[in-house]
Design goal:
The complex is a heterodimer.
Chain A (H helix, E strand, L loop, with lengths): L1 E3 L9 H5 L5 E2 L7 E2 L9 H5 L5 E3 L17 H11 L6 E3 L4 E2 H9 L5 H8 L10 H9 L26 H8 L5 H12 L6
Antiparallel strand pairs in A: 1-4, 2-3, 5-6
Helix pairs in contact in A: 3-4, 3-6, 4-5, 4-6
Chain B lengths: L7 H4 E2 L29 E5 H4 L13 H13 L12 E6 H5 L4 H18 L4 E6 L6 H8 L2 H4 L4 E3 L6 E6 L2 E6 L7 E7 L5 H4 L16 H9 L8 H8 L1 H6 E10 L2 E8 L2 H24 L4 E10 L4 E2 L2 E2 H4 L18 H5 L19 E10 L5 H6 L2 E4 L1 H8 L12 E3 L2 H12 L4 E4 L5 E5 H8 L2 H19 L4 H4 L3
Parallel strand pairs in B: 3-4, 3-8, 4-5, 8-9, 11-14, 11-17, 14-15, 15-16
Antiparallel strand pairs in B: 1-2, 2-18, 6-7, 9-10, 12-13
Helix pairs in contact in B: 3-5, 12-19
The chains are: A mainly alpha, B alpha/beta.
Bound molecules: iron/sulfur cluster (2 copies).
The site of one iron/sulfur cluster has 14 residues of chain A, from helix 2.
């Protein structure tokens, strides 16, 4: 987990603004405080603190964070995943190995923001980069479109998918080697029930 | 029929010493890398220029900073710098990737020269260097320090990360997010390299544009690349951002270090990125295409990783290990939807590591065992330890993965050997082969066991012919380039 060396800290709040689990509390002019129970050791603060004020320390025992998918209605899980364009079994976070079904289960159990999902499942606590779109798409599948908290830039918003690329764009770039139609068919085959569960 | 004959005595030589390990927060302390794979008994190297004589002679190796400076100056002669004249600020945009090629010195020299030429030709002095990263958020800061770029750029050289503040960019398919720090100047210069590297991600479609969707992009954009667009359309994220009014208003020109399997061939520069991309396609399909097809002929081998990059980015003959993982299929062929390794593919394995759809191809069956003598963390790599037997040399190297938040389960599927010799002994036993290939960042030659060299060199002429006559025409057509325009052999 992360530890702050206050002799180096300049109270800029950057660590607070990027922590994926909101483990850091901070108000302007104050030192940041890290909640050891919420910190997942992702290293975002350690890797971006401009003053190298944060170090990572090994926990005496590993912390396991997981939502038990068997505790929720799997039909609902499947529905959320399919509506978001994912197969329930597919991996959405390569660092933690978290699958779409676990994020869907976290949403069924009440998670409404990427941060709540990270705290429940551990996603986004590895590279901090690659899994934000699946999270936002899975939330959107149940009608939740969260807004980032003012001042924080842990994430901004959802980006386009292949499903929404207009016909004229597909035609314009096809000759260059962008095979959108075929890729879309492949993703649909995976997510719209043709692949095994 | 083969077009030429191989003289084995000229091709096979002693192993080439790789660059030493480099200190980094992402790797093991260099003192723990006691022996390199190239020092193992029965190791030789094969010379790529003897195998494929049409690849031009490189400027580097051997190290030659002046040649890089001259080539950069010469390439910039033909560039129109008028868009920059009168600008209050210019950002030279770079990527960590350039520093992974030949230890980074050629790229650093190119970056310094670009600054000098812009200053001289335009009078603009407020020139900043902004270097993006992969998933190792301080990696570029390390290179900036190592090559003293901060001093060279008068305190204005910065590592930028996808976690840093962003700026929305409207494109013809919707909103993506760029890094504010990349675009906080009047004008931008795109300073990259032509190395094919992640063919599994960009499929060599608009390869020259990729950093607009990666190094210069926020995390949302990168996530869209790897989850939203699909395995062949992913790199359109970069093209869409590049085409946006926001980027076009700032665009000045691009400068690319011309990489190849034998080393640095020169420097390309152009105001027109499309034109530059076409040149890169032709070069890369031909030169990297041949080396990759040659490596695809390996029937069985032990892979030893031994370079200062994360597991998939260790190089052999200019080809990254991630590509070798998928060389059982033709990665350049766009009729193949999913490479054996790419994030779309990795996502499509279930909890028991069974593919979710039949389109998921198996990983390269030639790889029998992977020995990690030296490779960094900072990239989610559990795919390899799940798919192949992996032996990690030393507890300290294993600790690199154990403390890495991107590799929390890597060592669950790998074993540790005390030293390289013990690891190899075990690898020979379980791999049941004496063929060894080393990914140690050497250019111009590939370090391998004598048994593999003897087997492989014979195949070069037929590979050359296959690429020139059969594959190049197909690959080019798939990318909208009429083969008759560029294939004059
Ligand atoms: S980012 Fe670093 S300097 Fe800024 S508040 Fe956090 S610990 Fe302090
Ligand atoms: S979760 Fe990550 S960013 Fe947040 S305090 Fe822990 S290490 Fe730092």
């Amino acid at each position: 987990m992360a530890k702050t060396d206050y002799s180096k800290c300049v109270k800029c709040g950057l660590c607070w603004s990027i922590c994926p689990t909101e483990a850091i509390s901070w108000t302007p002019g104050e030192y940041p405080k890290i909640d050891p129970n919420t910190c997942m050791g992702c290293g975002a603060c350690y890797e971006r603190c401009p003053n190298y004020a944060i170090t990572m320390e090994r926990l005496p025992e590993p912390k396991i964070v997981r939502v038990d998918v068997s505790k929720v209605d799997f039909k609902k899980v499947e529905e959320i995943c399919r509506n978001a364009g994912f197969h329930p079994e597919q991996i959405i976070c390569f660092c933690t190995g978290t699958r779409a079904k676990e994020v869907a289960a976290a949403i069924i159990l009440g998670a409404k923001t990427p941060e709540e999902i990270s705290r429940m499942t551990g996603v986004r606590t590895g590279c901090k980069v690659e899994c934000i779109q699946p999270i936002l798409r899975l939330l959107r599948a149940v009608g939740i479109e969260p807004k980032p908290k003012p001042g924080r830039h842990a994430w901004y918003g959802i980006c386009p998918t292949v499903f929404e690329i207009p016909k004229k764009v597909r035609e314009k770039y096809r000759a260059r080697g962008f095979y959108f139609d075929e890729d879309e068919m492949l993703l649909k085959k995976l997510t719209r029930g043709e692949a095994k569960v | 029929m083969p077009q030429y004959k191989i003289d084995k005595s000229r091709v096979i030589g002693p192993p080439i010493a790789p660059l030493p390990p480099a200190p980094s927060i992402y790797g093991v302390d260099p003192k723990y890398v006691k022996k390199r794979a190239s020092e193992l008994p029965n190791m030789v190297s094969i010379k790529i220029s003897e195998l494929f004589p049409d690849i031009p002679k490189p400027l580097w190796p051997p190290p030659n900073p002046k040649a890089i400076r001259d080539a950069t100056e010469e390439a910039l002669e033909n560039v129109d710098m008028s868009p920059i004249k009168g600008a209050r600020s210019v950002n030279i945009l770079g990527s960590h990737h350039g520093f992974t090629i030949l230890g980074g010195e050629p790229y650093a020299e190119m970056l310094k020269t670009i600054k000098d030429v812009i200053e001289r030709k335009t009078g603009v002095t407020n020139i900043r260097l902004k270097v993006g990263v992969g998933l190792r958020h301080r990696e570029s800061e390390e290179y900036i320090k190592r090559f003293k770029l901060d001093e060279y750029f008068n305190g204005k050289a910065y590592g930028i990360s996808p976690l840093d503040p962003g700026v929305p960019i409207e494109t013809e398919i919707g909103t993506f997010y760029g890094l504010r720090a990349a675009y906080d100047a009047d004008k931008i210069v795109h300073a990259h390299n032509t190395d094919v590297r992640e063919v599994h991600f960009h499929r060599h479609v608009d390869r020259a544009f990729k950093p607009f969707g990666m190094s210069y992009a926020r995390l949302e954009t990168r996530s869209a690349y790897h989850h939203n667009l699909g395995p062949r359309g992913a790199n359109f994220v970069a093209r869409a951002i590049f085409n946006s009014k926001f980027v076009q208003d700032k665009w000045a020109f691009s400068v690319f270090l011309r990489a190849s399997p034998v080393g640095i061939l020169g420097v390309y520069a152009d105001n027109d990125l499309d034109r530059l991309d076409r040149r890169i396609i032709v070069d890369n399909l031909r030169y990297y295409g041949k080396v990759m097809r040659l490596l695809s002929k390996i029937d069985e081998c032990i892979v030893v990783l031994d370079y200062r990059t994360p597991i998939p980015y260790t190089f052999s003959g200019g080809v990254i290990f991630a590509n070798f993982t998928g060389l059982n299929i033709d990665l350049f062929d766009l009729d193949n939807p999913l490479p054996p390794y790419t994030w779309y593919t990795e996502a499509y394995y279930d909890e028991k590591d069974r593919p979710l759809i039949p389109e998921v191809p198996p990983v390269n069956p030639a790889i029998k065992v992977i020995v990690i003598n030296y490779a960094w963390g900072g990239y989610p790599s559990v795919f390899w330890s799940k798919m192949f037997p992996v032996i990690v040399v030393t507890k300290e190297q294993a600790d690199v993965y154990n403390r890495d938040p991107q590799n929390i389960e890597f060592m669950k599927h790998a074993v540790i050997a005390e030293d390289l010799e013990t690891a190899m002994e075990f690898a020979y036993k379980i791999g049941k082969t004496d063929k060894v290939i080393v990914f140690d960042g050497v250019y111009g030659a590939i370090n391998m066991s004598k048994s593999l060299a003897e087997y492989l060199v014979e195949k070069a002429p037929e590979v050359d012919e296959e690429v020139e006559k059969k594959l190049m025409p197909k690959w080019l057509k798939q990318r909208g380039i009429p083969p008759e325009e560029v294939l004059c052999k």
